[in-house]
Structures are given as structure tokens and as C-alpha cells.
Amino acid sequence: MTPVIFGQLLLSSISWTGFDLARKGLANRLPATEVVILLMMVQVPLFAAIASWEGFSIESVENYWRPAIASILLNLVANVLFLESLRRAPVSLAIPMLSFTPVFSSLSSWVILNELLLWPQMLGILVIVASTYQIQRLDEGDGGAEQKVVKVGLLMMVGVALLWSITPVTDKLCIRYTTPSMHAGIQCFFVGLLLLGRFFVSTRPATNSLWAMAKENRRLLFIAGVAACSALFFQLLVIRVYEVALFEALKRSFGLIGALAGGLIFFRESLTRKKIIGTVGLIIGTLLVLLADRL
């Protein structure tokens, strides 16, 4: 890995962590659909500005739009599920569930492509499942309504992991035919447009207009939009020339540590021994799954 690629990977990982924390703050204030719409509206002009420097072009429209449509639909559902999950579960519990992403990738290659798992991959899956149970196992109680809400949020995040295990592949196919900023801008535009149509079809009180929401939360929206733009742009730059699996492993490792630190610093979430042990296990399991052929 060259210093330039490592720097881009580090910037992407840090940006994803910041974006996750900013989305957590927005999810606590606004409905999930509206948050995604506003975030897309912030990102589109940012990516358009970068694309004006990289160039507005698509080499093969037919070849580009097939994976692009899949990427748009997957991200549309994943973004809404992600925010709904954060409304129900603490950051330090929910974000580690994204470590299921490489597990789903490994299992799908076995089922669909008939590729046998290597022993480090099988061991990694067992470590991830055990570690996830360690984190997901709530403190002793009577299993009341609050704990049930948290568990639903964690299951939603597992669904997000499933969807986001596919999007890097479709994104890599897309940027064969256009620039990273062009693809990211198109993706954000259509995700926002589809949700905007749903928003206007729904009946909303005037006081809950998008403009009022944006004005009231403009500072946090700007921070989240810049972080999202940085995260996705540098991610696309890296995966264009580097293995997706290895990038995901390193990004998840940084992200898990950031989720624990961010939940502790910004949301005053408790940092228990259970969370630390479980997250360390997730990092080890993820690396075993993704780097099995290098062991």
C-alpha cells in the first residue's frame, strides 16, 4: 500500500466515523427519511463542484447505469434503515453490527459461486458471531420495552450491513465508466429525489417543512454533509485501485474504534468491559474473514 492510498483510506475512515456521529445527532432530532433527503441535498452541490474539476463524463452510459441503479436502490434502503437503527440503539452498540458486512460477502460467494471457505474465514465468522452476541447481550434486566427497542435497532443495522456488503462492488463497476465525484453526485441526487417524491406525497404539517428542518439544523447538516462527501469520495478513490475487501477490513477496524470513542465522548454512552471485549473480537474476526488468503 502506497502512502497516498493509505492517507486516502485514513481520511475516508475518519470521515465515515464523523459522518456516523453527525447522523446520530440528526436522527435524534428528525425523522429518518427527512434526514436522508437533507443530507443528499447538501452533498450533491459538493460533488458537483469536485466533478467540475474531474470532469462531467460517462464513457459508456449503458454499462454504467446497470450497476448504478442497483447502487442507488441499495443505498436508498440502507440509509433509511441506518438512521432508524441509530434512533433505537446506542452508537457503540449499533455501529459494530456493520462488521457483518464481510461475513455476508464471504457467505454469498460460497452460496452463489460455490467457493469453499478457507479455515481462517470460518474461524473469523465464528469469532464475529460470538463477539456480536457479546456486544448485543444487554445488561441484566426484565427484557422490558426499552431493551426490545434496542434489539430491533440492532437487527436493522444487520440489514444495513447486508445491503452495504453489495454496494462497494456496484460502485467499483460504476467508476470504471466515470469519475468518483460524478458517480457519487448521481447517486446522491437520485436517492434524494426518490425520497423527496415520497415526502411530498405524504401529508405533513406546515411546521415540519424541509426548509424549516434544514434551517433549524443547518450547522449539523453542513458538518454531516462535508463528512459524507469526504468519506465517499476518498473511498471511491481507494477502491478504484485497491482491493475492496482489504479496504473494508481496515475501514471497519477504524470505524469500530471510532464508534466506541464517539459514543463515549459525544453521547456520554458507557464504555463497558463487554463492549471493549466484543469490539476487539469483531476486529479480529473481520480481519480473519477478509485476509484469509494472506494467512
Structure description:
With 295 residues, this protein is mainly α. It has one domain (3-294). Helices cover 79% and strands 0% of the residues. The chain contains 13 helices and no strands. The mean pLDDT is 80.
Features of the shown structure:
single chain; 295 residues; mainly alpha; 13 helices; 79% helix; globular
Provide the fold topology.
Blueprint lengths: L2 H25 L4 H23 L6 H28 L2 H4 L5 H14 L5 H18 L8 H20 L2 H8 L5 H22 L8 H7 L1 H24 L2 H23 L6 H18 L5
The geometry reads as: globular
- Report the major sheet: none
Number of domains: 1
| Average residue pLDDT | 80
Helix content: over 70%
Query: What order do the helices and strands follow?
Result: HHHHHHHHHHHHH
Number of strands: 0
Helical region count? 13
Q: Rg to the nearest angstrom? A: 19 Å
Low-confidence stretches: none
Termini separation: 17 Å
Q: Which class of secondary structure composition applies to the elements?
A: mainly alpha
- Bin the strand percentage: under 5%
